[in-house]
Amino acid sequence: MKNNIKVQRAIHNFTQQDLADKIGVSRQTINAMEKGKYVPSTVLALKLSQLFKISVNEIFELEAED
Amino acid sequence: MKTNYLFPYRLKKISGIIFLISFITLTVFYFLDEFAYFEIKSKVFAVVGNTGLLGENDWFGWVENSITDEILVVLSIVFGIIFAFSKEKYEDEMVMSVRLNSLAWATIINYILIVLSYIFIYGVSFLTVMSAIMFSQLLIFIILFRYNIYKLNKAGTDEE
């Protein structure tokens, strides 16, 4: 699964730590998500969507192997 | 998401220290005969107890036994469990998934060890190995989990 969290974060001018604090996870989790090493839960995806004010589909995208 | 079966983070350090001390003492105690000096003899209640390796089983009776190892085993297991299953400083869903992953691998590795020792170890040594295997799953889990969390924190330090 691909995501554009890093882009969204840049648009909103958040550091990884800012974003982590806002959605209640550790900075390591944000880092792992941006690198595609961790697929977040639905709850976390919805929190991101709420924060960035865009739909979940606009942040996450399925890849061929999913 | 709330996880309610984990112990609080503040117990982590102290339980880790007690676990390490009692576990090392237990290991040393097991391998060194001189430690017989530290034996605490006591009458204990035994559900099953017998005298000698081939003696008759005595059910529900009182036996004389050194309780040093009992104390150390209980300390190791209780504080080992608390250390292994207490919250991380930053507990979130990824830590939860790392924990589950480490637990699954620890179980698999442990059973591989059990199968291997069952096939290749015979005689009285087998009893020694089996008593070590009482702790191996917990120990493997702790090592795997700590290593994975360490790896995670290390990977997380390179921002942008």
Summarize the structure.
The complex is a heterodimer of chains A (66) and B (160). Chain A has 66 residues and is mainly alpha-helical.
Considering DSSP H and I runs of 4 or more, what fraction of the residues of chain A is helical?
55-70%
> Radius of gyration of chain A over alpha carbons?
11 Å
Helix content class of chain B: 55-70%
Runs of chain B in which pLDDT lies below 50 for 5 or more consecutive residues are: none
Instruction: Report on the biggest sheet of chain A.
Output: 2 strands, antiparallel
**N/C terminus separation of chain B:** 28 Å
Q: How is the quaternary structure best described?
A: heterodimer
Annotated CATH homologous superfamily of chain A: lambda repressor-like DNA-binding domains
Give me the CATH fold name of chain A. 434 Repressor (Amino-terminal Domain)
Helix-and-strand structural type of chain B: alpha+beta
Strand order in the largest sheet of chain B: 1-2
- Largest beta sheet: strand ordering of chain A: 1-2
* Whole-number mean pLDDT of chain A: 91
Termini of chain A, distance in Å? 7 Å
Q: Which structural class best describes the helix and strand composition of chain A?
A: mainly alpha
Structure description:
The complex is a heterodimer of chains A (66) and B (160). With 66 residues, chain A is mainly alpha-helical. Chain A has one domain: lambda repressor-like DNA-binding domains (434 Repressor (Amino-terminal Domain), Orthogonal Bundle). Chain A is built from 5 helices and 2 strands, in the order E-H-H-H-H-H-E. Chain A has helices at 5-11, 16-23, 27-34, 42-52, 56-59, and strands at 2-3, 60-61. A two-stranded antiparallel sheet of chain A has the order 1-2. In chain A, helix 2 packs across helix 3 (27-34). By secondary structure, chain B is an alpha+beta fold. Chain B folds into 2 domains: 1-87, no CATH class; 89-160. Chain B is built from 4 helices and 2 strands; from the N terminus they run αββααα. Chain B has helices spanning 12-31, 68-84, 93-120, 124-155; strands at residues 41-50, 57-66. In chain B, helix 1 runs antiparallel to helix 2, helix 2 packs parallel to helix 4 and helix 3 (93-120) runs antiparallel to helix 4. Chain B is globular, with a radius of gyration of 19 Å. The two termini of chain B are 28 Å apart. The model of chain B has no long low-confidence stretch (mean pLDDT 86). The chains are: A mainly alpha (66), B alpha+beta (160). At the A-B interface, helix 3 of A face helix 3 and helix 4 of B.
